[in-house]
Amino acid sequence: MVQYKLMYFPVRGLGEMARLILHYANVPYEDKHISFEEWPNMKTTTPFGQLPILEVDGKPLAQSFAIARFLARKHGLAGKDDWESAQLDAIADFMKDVATECRPYFMALMGRGEGDKDELYNTVFKTSMEKNMPVLEKLLKESGSGFFAKSGVSWVDFYIANFMETFEELGPSVMSAYKDLLKHKETVYALPQLKKYLESRPKTQF
Amino acid sequence: MVQYKLTYFPVRGLGEMIRFIFHYSNTPFEDNRIGGDDWQKIKSTTPFGQMPVLEIDGKPLAQSFAITRYLARKHGLAGKDDWESAQLDAIADFGKDFSAELRPYFGVLMGRSEGNKDELYKTVFVPAIDKNIPILEKLLKDSGSGFFSKSGVSWVDFYVASFTETLEGMAPEVVSKYSEILKHKEKVYALPQLKKYLDSRPKTQF
Q: Which residues form the GST N-terminal domain (chain B) (predicted)?
Protein backbone atom coordinates (compact mmCIF):
# COMPACT_ATOMS: atom_id res chain seq x y z
CA MET A 1 0.00 0.00 0.00
CA VAL A 2 1.29 3.45 -0.91
CA GLN A 3 2.58 5.45 2.06
CA TYR A 4 1.46 9.07 1.99
CA LYS A 5 2.91 11.76 4.23
CA LEU A 6 1.64 15.34 3.89
CA MET A 7 3.82 18.01 5.44
CA TYR A 8 2.37 21.45 5.98
CA PHE A 9 1.99 24.14 8.59
CA PRO A 10 -0.66 23.64 11.28
CA VAL A 11 -3.18 25.69 9.31
CA ARG A 12 -5.67 25.02 6.48
CA GLY A 13 -4.12 27.29 3.87
CA LEU A 14 -2.79 25.47 0.82
CA GLY A 15 -2.59 22.11 2.57
CA GLU A 16 -6.26 21.63 3.32
CA MET A 17 -7.38 20.54 -0.13
CA ALA A 18 -4.94 17.60 -0.05
CA ARG A 19 -6.25 16.64 3.42
CA LEU A 20 -9.85 16.87 2.19
CA ILE A 21 -9.06 14.70 -0.87
CA LEU A 22 -7.42 12.02 1.26
CA HIS A 23 -10.24 12.01 3.81
CA TYR A 24 -12.93 12.04 1.12
CA ALA A 25 -11.27 9.07 -0.60
CA ASN A 26 -10.72 7.37 2.76
CA VAL A 27 -6.99 7.03 2.10
CA PRO A 28 -4.76 6.72 5.17
CA TYR A 29 -1.94 9.26 5.38
CA GLU A 30 0.35 10.89 7.89
CA ASP A 31 -0.76 14.49 8.44
CA LYS A 32 2.53 15.96 9.62
CA HIS A 33 2.31 19.49 10.96
CA ILE A 34 5.45 21.57 10.64
CA SER A 35 5.50 24.45 13.08
CA PHE A 36 6.52 27.90 11.91
CA GLU A 37 9.44 27.67 14.36
CA GLU A 38 10.90 24.43 13.01
CA TRP A 39 10.28 25.33 9.35
CA PRO A 40 13.46 27.41 8.75
CA ASN A 41 15.55 24.35 9.66
CA MET A 42 13.90 22.05 7.17
CA LYS A 43 13.29 24.57 4.39
CA THR A 44 16.41 23.75 2.40
CA THR A 45 15.58 20.03 2.40
CA THR A 46 12.45 20.66 0.31
CA PRO A 47 12.42 20.89 -3.51
CA PHE A 48 11.50 24.60 -3.64
CA GLY A 49 11.92 25.76 -0.06
CA GLN A 50 8.14 25.68 0.31
CA LEU A 51 5.32 23.70 1.90
CA PRO A 52 3.14 21.70 1.39
CA ILE A 53 5.11 18.62 0.41
CA LEU A 54 3.52 15.24 -0.22
CA GLU A 55 5.85 12.29 0.22
CA VAL A 56 4.68 9.30 -1.81
CA ASP A 57 6.60 6.23 -0.62
CA GLY A 58 9.27 8.65 0.59
CA LYS A 59 9.56 10.59 -2.67
CA PRO A 60 8.64 14.27 -2.45
CA LEU A 61 6.11 16.13 -4.55
CA ALA A 62 5.81 19.88 -3.96
CA GLN A 63 3.29 22.61 -4.81
CA SER A 64 -0.27 22.48 -3.57
CA PHE A 65 -1.95 22.26 -6.97
CA ALA A 66 0.42 19.57 -8.30
CA ILE A 67 -0.23 17.53 -5.13
CA ALA A 68 -4.01 18.06 -5.27
CA ARG A 69 -4.24 17.23 -8.98
CA PHE A 70 -2.07 14.10 -8.58
CA LEU A 71 -4.22 12.78 -5.72
CA ALA A 72 -7.46 13.91 -7.36
CA ARG A 73 -6.71 12.02 -10.58
CA LYS A 74 -6.16 8.84 -8.59
CA HIS A 75 -9.49 9.18 -6.80
CA GLY A 76 -11.98 10.41 -9.40
CA LEU A 77 -11.85 13.98 -8.15
CA ALA A 78 -10.40 15.63 -11.26
CA GLY A 79 -13.38 15.70 -13.60
CA LYS A 80 -14.77 12.91 -15.77
CA ASP A 81 -12.42 13.43 -18.74
CA ASP A 82 -9.47 15.53 -19.89
CA TRP A 83 -11.70 18.39 -21.04
CA GLU A 84 -13.48 18.64 -17.68
CA SER A 85 -10.10 18.32 -15.90
CA ALA A 86 -8.83 21.24 -17.97
CA GLN A 87 -11.87 23.37 -17.16
CA LEU A 88 -11.31 22.62 -13.47
CA ASP A 89 -7.61 23.52 -13.78
CA ALA A 90 -8.68 26.84 -15.31
CA ILE A 91 -11.04 27.64 -12.45
CA ALA A 92 -8.39 26.79 -9.85
CA ASP A 93 -5.73 28.88 -11.60
CA PHE A 94 -8.19 31.78 -11.90
CA MET A 95 -8.78 31.55 -8.14
CA LYS A 96 -5.01 31.50 -7.62
CA ASP A 97 -4.77 34.74 -9.67
CA VAL A 98 -7.42 36.23 -7.35
CA ALA A 99 -5.43 35.17 -4.30
CA THR A 100 -2.27 36.70 -5.80
CA GLU A 101 -4.17 39.94 -6.39
CA CYS A 102 -5.25 39.98 -2.74
CA ARG A 103 -1.78 39.16 -1.43
CA PRO A 104 -0.82 42.76 -0.49
CA TYR A 105 -3.89 42.87 1.77
CA PHE A 106 -3.17 39.51 3.41
CA MET A 107 0.51 40.36 3.91
CA ALA A 108 -0.41 43.65 5.61
CA LEU A 109 -3.02 41.84 7.71
CA MET A 110 -0.43 39.36 8.95
CA GLY A 111 2.06 42.16 9.63
CA ARG A 112 4.36 40.79 6.93
CA GLY A 113 3.83 43.42 4.28
CA GLU A 114 3.70 47.15 3.88
CA GLY A 115 0.69 49.34 3.77
CA ASP A 116 -2.36 50.10 5.80
CA LYS A 117 -4.51 47.01 6.17
CA ASP A 118 -7.76 48.95 6.34
CA GLU A 119 -6.90 50.85 3.18
CA LEU A 120 -5.84 47.68 1.39
CA TYR A 121 -9.07 45.98 2.53
CA ASN A 122 -10.94 48.54 0.43
CA THR A 123 -8.56 49.08 -2.47
CA VAL A 124 -7.36 45.50 -2.91
CA PHE A 125 -9.55 42.92 -1.17
CA LYS A 126 -13.02 44.38 -1.64
CA THR A 127 -12.27 45.43 -5.24
CA SER A 128 -10.98 41.96 -6.11
CA MET A 129 -13.94 40.19 -4.52
CA GLU A 130 -16.46 42.42 -6.29
CA LYS A 131 -14.79 41.79 -9.62
CA ASN A 132 -14.09 38.10 -9.26
CA MET A 133 -16.63 36.37 -7.03
CA PRO A 134 -19.47 36.92 -9.51
CA VAL A 135 -17.37 35.08 -12.10
CA LEU A 136 -17.19 32.04 -9.81
CA GLU A 137 -20.91 32.22 -9.05
CA LYS A 138 -21.67 32.26 -12.76
CA LEU A 139 -19.54 29.12 -13.23
CA LEU A 140 -21.42 27.36 -10.44
CA LYS A 141 -24.71 28.29 -12.03
CA GLU A 142 -23.57 27.04 -15.45
CA SER A 143 -22.45 23.75 -13.98
CA GLY A 144 -25.81 23.08 -12.42
CA SER A 145 -24.51 20.21 -10.29
CA GLY A 146 -23.87 22.30 -7.19
CA PHE A 147 -20.16 21.72 -7.78
CA PHE A 148 -17.79 23.36 -10.26
CA ALA A 149 -17.80 20.36 -12.60
CA LYS A 150 -21.09 19.13 -14.09
CA SER A 151 -20.05 15.59 -13.26
CA GLY A 152 -19.76 16.24 -9.52
CA VAL A 153 -17.35 17.10 -6.74
CA SER A 154 -13.66 17.69 -7.48
CA TRP A 155 -10.48 19.03 -5.86
CA VAL A 156 -11.42 22.49 -7.04
CA ASP A 157 -14.57 22.45 -4.86
CA PHE A 158 -12.31 21.68 -1.88
CA TYR A 159 -9.91 24.49 -2.82
CA ILE A 160 -12.60 27.12 -3.24
CA ALA A 161 -14.70 26.06 -0.23
CA ASN A 162 -11.59 26.35 1.94
CA PHE A 163 -10.85 29.78 0.54
CA MET A 164 -14.41 30.94 1.17
CA GLU A 165 -14.17 29.75 4.77
CA THR A 166 -11.12 31.99 5.28
CA PHE A 167 -12.42 34.97 3.32
CA GLU A 168 -15.78 34.85 5.07
CA GLU A 169 -14.04 35.18 8.43
CA LEU A 170 -11.77 38.01 7.26
CA GLY A 171 -14.38 40.02 5.40
CA PRO A 172 -17.91 38.99 6.32
CA SER A 173 -19.47 42.21 5.11
CA VAL A 174 -18.00 41.78 1.63
CA MET A 175 -18.45 38.02 1.37
CA SER A 176 -22.01 37.83 2.65
CA ALA A 177 -23.19 39.08 -0.74
CA TYR A 178 -22.01 35.88 -2.41
CA LYS A 179 -24.78 33.58 -1.30
CA ASP A 180 -24.21 30.96 -3.99
CA LEU A 181 -20.55 30.62 -3.07
CA LEU A 182 -21.40 30.37 0.61
CA LYS A 183 -24.00 27.73 -0.25
CA HIS A 184 -21.35 25.90 -2.28
CA LYS A 185 -19.08 25.86 0.75
CA GLU A 186 -21.89 24.38 2.85
CA THR A 187 -22.59 21.75 0.19
CA VAL A 188 -18.93 20.69 0.18
CA TYR A 189 -18.76 20.64 3.98
CA ALA A 190 -21.93 18.53 4.12
CA LEU A 191 -20.36 15.68 2.13
CA PRO A 192 -20.71 12.63 4.38
CA GLN A 193 -17.19 11.43 3.51
CA LEU A 194 -15.78 14.59 5.11
CA LYS A 195 -17.94 14.63 8.23
CA LYS A 196 -15.61 12.85 10.64
CA TYR A 197 -12.60 14.94 9.58
CA LEU A 198 -14.43 18.27 9.64
CA GLU A 199 -15.69 17.58 13.13
CA SER A 200 -12.27 16.67 14.48
CA ARG A 201 -9.84 18.96 12.65
CA PRO A 202 -8.35 21.95 14.46
CA LYS A 203 -10.13 25.28 13.93
CA THR A 204 -7.78 27.79 12.33
CA GLN A 205 -8.19 31.33 11.09
CA PHE A 206 -6.68 30.53 7.68
CA MET B 1 -10.26 17.56 -37.61
CA VAL B 2 -10.34 19.60 -34.41
CA GLN B 3 -10.34 23.37 -34.97
CA TYR B 4 -8.02 25.25 -32.62
CA LYS B 5 -8.03 29.03 -32.19
CA LEU B 6 -5.66 30.67 -29.71
CA THR B 7 -6.46 34.26 -28.77
CA TYR B 8 -3.74 36.22 -26.98
CA PHE B 9 -1.88 39.52 -27.00
CA PRO B 10 0.79 39.99 -29.69
CA VAL B 11 3.53 39.07 -27.23
CA ARG B 12 5.16 35.85 -25.98
CA GLY B 13 4.07 36.13 -22.35
CA LEU B 14 1.74 33.35 -21.26
CA GLY B 15 0.76 32.39 -24.79
CA GLU B 16 4.10 31.37 -26.23
CA MET B 17 4.30 27.92 -24.62
CA ILE B 18 0.92 27.14 -26.19
CA ARG B 19 2.13 28.25 -29.62
CA PHE B 20 5.26 26.09 -29.12
CA ILE B 21 3.14 22.99 -28.46
CA PHE B 22 1.16 23.52 -31.66
CA HIS B 23 4.29 24.07 -33.73
CA TYR B 24 6.27 21.29 -32.05
CA SER B 25 3.47 18.80 -32.68
CA ASN B 26 2.82 20.20 -36.14
CA THR B 27 -0.84 20.87 -35.27
CA PRO B 28 -2.55 23.61 -37.30
CA PHE B 29 -4.13 26.41 -35.30
CA GLU B 30 -5.31 29.97 -35.72
CA ASP B 31 -2.83 32.25 -33.92
CA ASN B 32 -5.20 35.13 -33.20
CA ARG B 33 -3.07 37.99 -31.84
CA ILE B 34 -5.12 40.93 -30.53
CA GLY B 35 -4.71 43.84 -28.17
CA GLY B 36 -5.95 47.29 -27.31
CA ASP B 37 -9.52 48.04 -28.38
CA ASP B 38 -9.99 44.71 -30.11
CA TRP B 39 -9.29 43.02 -26.79
CA GLN B 40 -11.56 45.36 -24.83
CA LYS B 41 -14.39 44.53 -27.21
CA ILE B 42 -14.25 40.79 -26.56
CA LYS B 43 -12.98 40.77 -22.95
CA SER B 44 -16.38 40.17 -21.39
CA THR B 45 -17.03 37.23 -23.69
CA THR B 46 -14.08 35.29 -22.25
CA PRO B 47 -14.54 32.94 -19.27
CA PHE B 48 -12.51 35.08 -16.81
CA GLY B 49 -11.96 38.35 -18.65
CA GLN B 50 -8.41 37.22 -19.36
CA MET B 51 -6.24 35.93 -22.18
CA PRO B 52 -5.02 33.49 -23.41
CA VAL B 53 -8.16 31.65 -24.40
CA LEU B 54 -8.10 28.52 -26.54
CA GLU B 55 -11.19 27.68 -28.51
CA ILE B 56 -11.53 24.02 -29.39
CA ASP B 57 -14.25 23.52 -31.97
CA GLY B 58 -15.62 26.81 -30.68
CA LYS B 59 -15.65 25.87 -26.99
CA PRO B 60 -13.44 28.05 -24.78
CA LEU B 61 -10.73 26.98 -22.36
CA ALA B 62 -9.02 29.72 -20.36
CA GLN B 63 -5.86 30.03 -18.23
CA SER B 64 -2.45 29.44 -19.75
CA PHE B 65 -1.48 26.45 -17.60
CA ALA B 66 -4.83 24.67 -18.07
CA ILE B 67 -4.60 25.17 -21.84
CA THR B 68 -0.96 24.13 -22.04
CA ARG B 69 -1.38 21.05 -19.86
CA TYR B 70 -4.47 19.95 -21.84
CA LEU B 71 -2.61 20.20 -25.17
CA ALA B 72 0.60 18.75 -23.70
CA ARG B 73 -1.22 15.62 -22.53
CA LYS B 74 -2.54 15.11 -26.05
CA HIS B 75 0.93 15.35 -27.60
CA GLY B 76 3.23 13.47 -25.21
CA LEU B 77 4.61 16.69 -23.72
CA ALA B 78 3.37 16.20 -20.14
CA GLY B 79 5.80 13.61 -18.78
CA LYS B 80 5.76 9.84 -19.23
CA ASP B 81 3.33 9.07 -16.38
CA ASP B 82 1.18 10.73 -13.71
CA TRP B 83 4.11 11.06 -11.29
CA GLU B 84 6.32 12.80 -13.85
CA SER B 85 3.35 14.98 -14.90
CA ALA B 86 2.91 15.98 -11.26
CA GLN B 87 6.61 16.83 -10.88
CA LEU B 88 6.34 18.98 -14.01
CA ASP B 89 3.20 20.68 -12.64
CA ALA B 90 5.14 21.46 -9.48
CA ILE B 91 8.02 23.05 -11.40
CA ALA B 92 5.63 25.15 -13.48
CA ASP B 93 3.70 26.33 -10.42
CA PHE B 94 7.01 27.17 -8.74
CA GLY B 95 7.80 29.21 -11.86
CA LYS B 96 4.47 30.96 -11.45
CA ASP B 97 5.31 31.78 -7.79
CA PHE B 98 8.67 33.13 -9.01
CA SER B 99 6.85 35.33 -11.52
CA ALA B 100 4.49 36.56 -8.82
CA GLU B 101 7.47 37.58 -6.70
CA LEU B 102 8.68 39.78 -9.58
CA ARG B 103 5.29 41.41 -10.05
CA PRO B 104 5.86 44.49 -7.86
CA TYR B 105 8.91 45.34 -9.97
CA PHE B 106 7.27 44.62 -13.34
CA GLY B 107 4.20 46.61 -12.31
CA VAL B 108 6.27 49.74 -11.85
CA LEU B 109 8.43 49.05 -14.91
CA MET B 110 5.34 48.86 -17.13
CA GLY B 111 3.75 51.91 -15.54
CA ARG B 112 0.89 49.90 -14.02
CA SER B 113 1.68 50.73 -10.41
CA GLU B 114 3.60 53.28 -8.42
CA GLY B 115 6.94 52.87 -6.83
CA ASN B 116 10.63 53.39 -7.25
CA LYS B 117 11.81 51.19 -10.10
CA ASP B 118 15.48 51.33 -9.16
CA GLU B 119 14.76 50.48 -5.54
CA LEU B 120 12.47 47.60 -6.49
CA TYR B 121 15.17 46.32 -8.88
CA LYS B 122 17.50 46.01 -5.89
CA THR B 123 15.03 44.85 -3.25
CA VAL B 124 12.63 42.70 -5.30
CA PHE B 125 13.97 41.80 -8.74
CA VAL B 126 17.57 40.81 -8.13
CA PRO B 127 16.92 38.86 -4.88
CA ALA B 128 14.11 36.90 -6.57
CA ILE B 129 16.35 35.99 -9.51
CA ASP B 130 19.22 34.98 -7.23
CA LYS B 131 16.94 32.90 -5.01
CA ASN B 132 14.92 31.13 -7.66
CA ILE B 133 17.06 30.52 -10.74
CA PRO B 134 19.49 28.30 -8.77
CA ILE B 135 16.52 26.14 -7.79
CA LEU B 136 15.57 25.70 -11.44
CA GLU B 137 19.20 24.94 -12.34
CA LYS B 138 19.36 22.26 -9.62
CA LEU B 139 16.23 20.63 -11.03
CA LEU B 140 17.82 20.54 -14.48
CA LYS B 141 20.92 18.91 -13.01
CA ASP B 142 18.84 16.34 -11.12
CA SER B 143 16.96 15.48 -14.30
CA GLY B 144 20.08 14.86 -16.36
CA SER B 145 18.19 14.84 -19.68
CA GLY B 146 18.81 18.50 -20.46
CA PHE B 147 15.08 19.04 -19.96
CA PHE B 148 13.06 19.32 -16.75
CA SER B 149 11.81 15.75 -16.90
CA LYS B 150 14.09 12.76 -17.21
CA SER B 151 11.96 11.39 -20.04
CA GLY B 152 12.49 14.39 -22.32
CA VAL B 153 11.01 17.69 -23.44
CA SER B 154 7.71 18.90 -21.98
CA TRP B 155 5.49 21.97 -21.82
CA VAL B 156 7.42 23.12 -18.79
CA ASP B 157 10.60 23.45 -20.86
CA PHE B 158 8.66 25.71 -23.23
CA TYR B 159 7.36 27.79 -20.30
CA VAL B 160 10.72 28.21 -18.61
CA ALA B 161 12.67 28.85 -21.83
CA SER B 162 10.37 31.73 -22.77
CA PHE B 163 10.59 33.13 -19.22
CA THR B 164 14.40 32.91 -19.35
CA GLU B 165 14.39 34.72 -22.70
CA THR B 166 12.38 37.56 -21.15
CA LEU B 167 14.50 37.82 -18.00
CA GLU B 168 17.74 37.69 -19.99
CA GLY B 169 16.47 40.46 -22.24
CA MET B 170 15.48 42.65 -19.32
CA ALA B 171 18.49 42.12 -17.09
CA PRO B 172 21.40 40.42 -18.81
CA GLU B 173 23.72 41.69 -16.06
CA VAL B 174 21.91 39.53 -13.50
CA VAL B 175 20.95 36.53 -15.62
CA SER B 176 24.16 36.04 -17.61
CA LYS B 177 25.82 34.16 -14.75
CA TYR B 178 23.17 31.44 -14.83
CA SER B 179 24.74 29.44 -17.62
CA GLU B 180 22.69 26.28 -17.07
CA ILE B 181 19.33 28.01 -17.46
CA LEU B 182 20.62 29.84 -20.52
CA LYS B 183 21.91 26.57 -21.95
CA HIS B 184 18.47 25.05 -21.31
CA LYS B 185 16.83 27.86 -23.27
CA GLU B 186 19.23 27.29 -26.17
CA LYS B 187 18.54 23.57 -26.12
CA VAL B 188 14.77 24.15 -26.30
CA TYR B 189 15.20 26.71 -29.07
CA ALA B 190 17.38 24.26 -31.03
CA LEU B 191 14.59 21.68 -31.27
CA PRO B 192 14.17 21.06 -35.01
CA GLN B 193 10.38 20.97 -34.69
CA LEU B 194 10.43 24.61 -33.54
CA LYS B 195 12.90 25.98 -36.09
CA LYS B 196 10.49 27.26 -38.72
CA TYR B 197 8.33 29.02 -36.12
CA LEU B 198 11.30 30.52 -34.23
CA ASP B 199 12.77 31.85 -37.47
CA SER B 200 9.52 33.56 -38.44
CA ARG B 201 7.84 34.68 -35.21
CA PRO B 202 7.74 38.37 -34.27
CA LYS B 203 10.50 39.47 -31.84
CA THR B 204 8.98 40.82 -28.61
CA GLN B 205 10.45 42.07 -25.36
CA PHE B 206 8.24 39.80 -23.27
A: 2-79
| pLDDT reported for residue A109 | 85
With CA atoms as reference, the chain B residue closest to A74 would be: B82
pLDDT digits (tens, 9 = 90+) for B94-117: 999 999 999 889 889 888 888 899
Range of the domain at B119: 82-191
Å from A185 to nearest chain B CA?
Answer: 21
Vertex A140: Cα angle to A139 and A146 (nearest 5): 155
Please tell me whether residues B100 and B72 are part of one structural domain. Answer: no
CA-based max dimension of chain A: 51
Chain A residues in contact with B93 by the CB 8 A cut-off are 63-66
Do residues B71 and B92 share a domain? no
pTM over 0.90: yes
Asked if B49 lies within 8 A of A65 by C-beta distance, the reply is no
Report yes or no on B113 lying in a domain.
yes
What CATH number should be reported for the domain holding residue B50? Answer: 3.40.30.10
pLDDT at A24: 98
Residues from chain A contacting residue B66 (CB–CB below 8 Å): 86-87, 89-90, 93
pLDDT tens-place string over residues A62-89 = 999 999 999 999 999 999 999 999 999 9
Nearest to A86 among B70, B85, B86 (CB): B70
User: Residue B15 domain-assigned?
Assistant: yes
Instruction: Determine whether the interchain pair B135/A66 forms a contact, defined as Cβ–Cβ distance below 8 Å.
Output: no
| Rounded Cα distance, A87 and A93, in Å | 10
Q: How far is CA A205 from CA A13, A53, B15, B16, B182, in A?
A: 9, 21, 37, 39, 43
Whether B86 and B19 map to the same domain: the answer is: no
Q: Are residues B131 and B178 in the same domain?
A: yes
Whether A99 has its CB under 8 Å from any CB of chain B: the answer is no
Report pLDDT for B104: 87
Would the CB atoms of A86 and B67 count as touching at under 8 Å? yes
Strand positions, DSSP E, chain B: 4-8, 30-33, 53-56, 59-62
| B67 & B18 share domain | yes
* Residue B206, domain member (yes or no): no
Task: Note whether residue B138 is domain-resident.
Answer: yes
